[in-house]
Structure prediction request, 256 residues.
Amino acid sequence: MKRSITLVFSFFFLIFTIGCDKEKKVYNNDNSIDNNIDNVDISKRILDIIDNELGMYLKYSSINDITNQDKLIYIYNEYVSDYGEEFDLKEFPASSLQKYFTDSSIIDLGYKNENIYCSSYYGDKDHILWNYDEIGDKYILNESHSAHDEVSYVMADKVVEYKNNNNRYTVFLNYLFGDTADDENSIDLYGSYIDFVSKNNKIATISRDNNKISFSTLALNYLNNNYDNIKDKLDYYEYTFVYSNNKIKLVDFNVN
Prediction:
C-alpha cells in the first residue's frame, strides 16, 4: 500500500501523490527571467518556490483559502522526501515536521498538528492517513487506509509580469490545465482550475501522432503560440513575497 505523500517538483516535470490518492501532474512552463533585472538569484528562488511549494494551492483564489491541512501535507511531503524510498514508518514524532515548516515560504502562516487526511477527503474519518496522538505528540499510521486510483493531468504556465519594490516581489502567472481525454493521443485544455475540474469552458483540444512528444510540451507550445488570443480566458495568479535575512516568505496570493 502506498502511504507516503511524495512531492517532486522541477521546472519541467511534477509528480504529486497525496496520501493514498495518486495524482500525477506533468508540468512545463515559460518561467524565463530577464538577466538584466536586479537580484536574479532571488528571482529564480522565488520561481522555484512557486513550482515546489505552492503548486497545491492552484485550486484556491487567495492566501486565506490555504488550510492547516494543506500546510501539514506540504511539510509532511518534505519530511518523507528526505527518507526517499526507505520511508516505512508506522509512527513518527510530530516535532519532526517543524524543521520543514521553518524552512518553507509559508512560515508566517503558522500551523498546528492534527490528523493528516488524503487530499480528497479532508475531515472524513474514513480517510485519515495519519492519526495525531495529542498525548504522545506523535503521528500514528492508519494502516487500514487503502490505495486510490490514479488521476493524471498536464499543465503549463507563463510568467506574465514580475515586480521588485524594495525586496517585495510580486509575480503574475497564467496557467493552462490539461485534462487527458478518453483518446490517449489528445488532451483538453482549460484556463482555470475551476474549469478544469468542472470540464467547462474548454479552450482547446490538442493532439499528438505519437508519444514521443509530451503533452506538457504541447501544452506549453500552445500557450506560447496562442497567448494573445487566449490570455483573456486565463486566470491570473498573483504571488507576493518579501525577502529578508536570506529568507523568502509568501505574504499574499490572489487569483483573478
Q: What stands out?
A: The helical segments are 40-52, 68-83, 98-102, 193-198, 215-225, 227-230. Residues 1-19, 21-28, 30-37 have pLDDT under 50 and may be disordered. The longest strand covers residues 150-164.
